[in-house]
Design brief:
Elements: E1 9-15, E2 18-23, E3 28-32, H1 41-61, E4 69-80, E5 86-98, H2 103-123, H3 125-132
Antiparallel strand pairs: 1-2, 2-3, 4-5
Helix pairs in contact: 1-2
Length: 147
């Protein structure tokens, strides 16, 4: 893989059940277990799914007209599956987008369904990874081995 394809983030513990996620550009956000206002990891997954799709859709449609409303609701059910593991299912990304009246707004409204489909089927790395699956390897960087 080239350097252009590599992505990373770090998560550091700040106290019991509280963490901070950081990116290489210096951004950070708090994360926790749901006992305070911080996002939980599952909420961050949902936000990443919606955010990725929103960026694509916004980029395509706003070239035609600036939206008067643009919000995305992401939902799903957290379940314990037949193997006893936790996972999400029935994920839904619901757009509420409106554009002003007029020819530019009409062009943006016309582009909206196509942009949502393109994002889902081709452009959004997050939703495509969730749908297609990707192996996850967990390693101990200190060299300890798990039993």
């Amino acid at each position: 893989m080239s350097d252009d394809s590599f992505r990373s983030a770090t998560v550091e513990r700040t106290s019991v059940g509280r963490y901070v996620a950081r990116n290489v550009r210096g951004g950070s956000l708090s994360m926790g277990t749901g006992e305070d206002a911080s996002f939980t990891p599952v909420e961050l997954l949902l936000a990443a799914l919606g955010g990725c799709t929103a960026v694509n859709v916004d980029h395509i449609t706003s070239r035609r007209a600036e939206p008067t409303q643009f919000s995305v609701k992401i939902s799903g059910d957290k379940i314990r599956d037949e193997t006893g593991g936790s996972r999400m299912r029935d994920l839904t990304v619901e757009f509420t987008v409106t554009f002003p009246e007029g020819a530019d707004g009409d062009r943006a409204r016309e582009a909206l369904p196509r942009s949502m489909r393109q994002s889902h089927e081709r452009l959004c790395t997050v939703s495509r990874t969730v749908e297609l699956g990707a192996p996850v390897t967990v390693v101990d960087a200190t060299g300890a081995t798990a039993d």
